[in-house]
Amino acid sequence: MELADIGRISIALALGCTVYACVVNGMSISGNRTLLAISGRNGMVGAGVMTSLSVVVLVIAFITHDFSIQFVAEHSNKAMPIGLTIAALWGGQAGSLLLWAWILAVVSPIAVWRVRSSDSQLATNAAFVLTILLFFFLAVLIFVDSPFKQLMSPPSDGRGLNPLLWDIAMQIHPPMLTAGYVCFAIPFALSIAGLMTGRIDRDWVKLVRGWMLLAWALQAAGLLLGAWWAYRVLGWGGYWGWDPVENVALIPWLLATAYLHSAIVQERRGMLKLWNVSLAISAYLLAIFGTFIVRSGVLTSVHSFAVSDVGPIFFVFFGLLLICCISLIIIRLPVLRTNNQFESATSREAGFLINNLLLVSVAATTFWGTIFPMISEVIQGARIAVGAPFYDQVNGPLLLALIILIGIGIALSWRRTDSKQLLIRLMPAAAVALVTGSLLFLLGIRDGLACLAVSAVGFTAMSTLTNFIGAVINAKDTGNSPGIKTVFSVLSKNRRRYGGYVVHLAILMIAIAVIGTNMYKKESSVTLGPGQTTSVEGYVLRFDELRFSRANDVTAVDAVVRVVSQGDGIEIVPGKRVHDGWETQPTSWVGINTSVPSLTDLYLLLTGWEVNPQLITLRVIVNPLVGYLWLGGAMYFLGTLMVSWPESKSREP
Amino acid sequence: MIAFLRRATIFLVCFITLWSPMSLFADQTSGSTLNTEQRMWLLAEELACPVCDGQSIKDSNAELAQQMRALIVVLLDSGRNEKEVTDYLVLRYGEEILLDPPKSGFQLGVWIGPVLFILIGVGIVSSKLFSVRDSMDTSSESGSSE
Amino acid sequence: MKRHLLAILLIVPAISLLAVFGASLQTNTSSSGAVNFAVEQEMLARRPAPDFKMVLFDGTEYQLSSQLGKVVVVNFWASWCGPCVREAPELEQVWKDRPSNVSMLGVALWDKEADARGFVRNHGLSFPIGIDDQGNIGIEYGIAGIPETVIVDKNGMIVTRWVGPLNAPTLMSMITPLLDESID
Asked: Less crowded by CB within 10 Å, the N or C end of chain B?
């Protein structure tokens, strides 16, 4: 028996387990039969084990270079290092679908098992929904696009991986993003299950919130790693291009962010049930929609590496899910009624509501801009482009308003805030904003938008800090030990709240990077001979020499450039790499020098060269403050960790 | 009811006043002091590179994008303005190269969409925020001297 | 009442959304291959061919406007492009068997001169060929993919734009009817 057969059989068995689990869970929904539910859960575990086995088989096939399997032959070769060979698993369509199915098959039983302890009926219903989703992916893997398809005559060596994917970020980014997409399935399943049981209560919100937090964090990790990859590998000096593939990954994250805020309102005040259910459901539907867009090739993008014929089947799946969800919501509308209502427009719950309005507006705008070219093609037959300028003009102001709202929202109390009190609370923040704005103006920045945006960031940062300091002073007044210890005790007593603050500050940092790179990015192009110096964008550059080398089937050209304006001359070496078999797709080896503490990047790209006489053409890009993006990203995860760290049991009574 | 309408309108006006001047900012480029190359980079940001899947000719390093950038500099130097250069390229490559969709014709739809979403959203939110308080206010008001 | 309203508000956009996706899936699968061909053809067909002058690899000068009265085949290609390799012998054959009053020009685009000259030598191409190293002719003709062939009639009007590689019979069938047209 060959590897491919084992792989195929294990996927088939996984499908069998899934069908069994689906039927048994379905039967136990109506009768509330405990034994059946347990058997259904075991079926899911079986599916998880069998899918894991098939992944192991594919990994072994990659490591042993079994080129009789088409997927292995098309995405790896013998010269590739081991880490990359394993990462090639998600370098193509079928493999990344297997990854998707695998994560879903493993996460689902865990989720069901954890939910079971608090609400067994909810768990059974969710198990039913999850097995249907899993069934779809496994069926696609068997009937439409199998990673275990065999070749009649195996080649002696494989084709290798697309050189653009030869990067550390590419070994982590796709599984993160896939895991994010997959985890949105749990809140989705819990929503559908909740609509079925009719209990959309506080416990439900708490359960969904935990899983939503996980999906939200994974999705953010995927997005940030993707941005980091694009910045260093694609060689255009940017990290985000409002490209369709990026957009469809951002939309579920935006909806999840909205959910994490509006869930607090439901937890505290029992309101917004319909809204929260809709958010959880839409986040997953849009994740499926994103996959459909990326895989079907209906939109072209710099990121589309895995276009194939699964488009129509994903379309049908998405359509069915959409119609089922809408019908279910409409049928169960009475369940979603709430008694509580908003008491004041200056309350924290109102702040959350406006926050949701802004986040969902950004999501809707992004969605609309992404699908508009398709609408145009269908209606008027001509493809049009909707690019970054559109998103900058519409989403830019919305995001700016959101940043200001973070600052205001923190100062709002539940139910009703006295407006005089609110003004007093916001006084220090407003002062900081005013000072920041005028300082920038005095420093010679005449761009109104830049001043406004940075002031907004200052405002919100200060508002967050004053709120935290206020809490520390309060704690001190109530007789706590003074100093650093109080700070830590305040932090640990309300980890969820202050973790959120850390995430807010991380977002502000990212905002600073976005303002810097969007408004003050400079670029130009220079041609230099050996030993020649030139002055560009405030740097003096000298070109020393061209180096040629060859190793592991890769031909490399490197230009040694020195920044002579900075002391002893830092060396930056931009270059190009040509991988054997991929001669038409040379990849850029970007040269980046980050200056501290402004975290401004000098970004050099070798765009052309002559050998005799030596001559290079460089693209010189100065990206102000871009490093704060990566720093903000790290801080984002610190905050997320704080929020999600389990409360220690001993402290609870 | 009138009080609700008044509050909702104030909310709406605040929202739009916050939103609209910022989009004006985004459009604005202080053109007078820029040299030709800087003007070229600004223009290049708004034109899609015809051979590279949605990247602008500013971001793309494709040969065609480089040639188009060089040509834009030539055309700007020959005294043409941004609009004329854009029209020149649109005539040759079609409207699909406009990354900033024109606010006219069919493409107006892409701009109307978000405005519509936001208006609907503001409508829903203000009805949530003000309608109840409104009825409470009126009841308390009618209970007092008024 | 509220329920019906919500139902309509949700279902109508959902259905129209699905319709758009379904339709775009269809257009996408059917038009792969000669993408945008119809659009481009409509855009530039029946327009005067922009005039240009270029120095050929043999050192002579070629000006489009001096070819008035002939049917001109302008082929944009590059040495690195796979389909161009298949197309080259076909073009050469048409050039050898050409009727009178037909002119042909190869324009190397997005290419290095040394590579383009090597390509011409290797494939033994004998029709007039030069390189558009600034890319201005390519942009003037709105070339967004390689190879592309533009056919100009006796009156200097663009009549056909062919995106993708051509074979000899197809090219001949496009040239022949143009030969009988009169000159205005």
From this structure: C
